[in-house]
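Quick one: structure tokens for this chain, please?
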Amino acid sequence: MSATRLGLPIDWGKIAPLRLRARVVAEGVYAGLHHSRRRGAGVEFGGQRPYVPGDDLRFLDRRSLLKHDKLMVREFETDTDRALWLCLDATLSMSFHGPDAPAAKLAYAALLGAALARVAISGGDPVGLCWVGAEQARDLAPGTGEGGFERVVGTLAAARAGTDLRRDPDALARRVRLLAHRARRGSVVVFISDLLDLPAGAPRAVASLGCRSRALCVVQVLDPAERLLGYHGKVRLRAIEGDDAVTTDADAARAEYLAGLGALTDGWARAVQAEGGRLVRACSSDPPIDVVRDVVRAVAEARR
């Protein structure tokens, strides 16, 4: 039976135990995911804006209507929790583990997700979890407190990489639509993936999660061998997803490879930024504290 059907257990390498590592990383992050105010129905007046269909009619400013013949909505400031939604790519390419990395890309992504969950929950924010391509893993509705953190860590630890999206090109779009339905206005969405071997149209689909006042951060996680093509001489490279294979001189092909990889990443960055989101580049050998800090900063920029 194929690995695609069975799924592959996460190659944790030096990262496990996940729970302890996530706490250590979270403690090294200097600030929570957010501590800010958002517009809504509250107790402190925060100004006016033009009415748009669907606004709550209770907040129409009658005086403005009588005086200026314009429909205006009164806004208020309120301090409320915002859900953090973690979406992890668990397709087969995320199972790759090169010789210079502490663990597979999926294990590193799980550590980043668990640490972000710890940061958010410590700030009182609920955390939800969903997957692209995972085998034997379930989505989680937003939860808070120590129990919410334990559920996130337990689900991350039990995931298995196992889907080749080439076999189901619409799978990513379906997952994005489901997450867009679940993540309400003002939510933070962090999508963690290597961005490799995804279906055509994936950048635009994922970027759409930045709509409806959601803050989107896409985190690209590459293995050191992928980031620099860390091989020399004649090599045979075989795709983890699909049956493609190529024999080449790594030194001669490096410049072309890096140019292609850069073009792919830049395309993702443009698509995400077009919807107000941010892209963070990471390598599975990078200190996870630094990457989590970069994500926190990127989320703050996306929210502005």
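The domain at 3-35+80-303 is CATH 3.40.50.410 (Rossmann fold).
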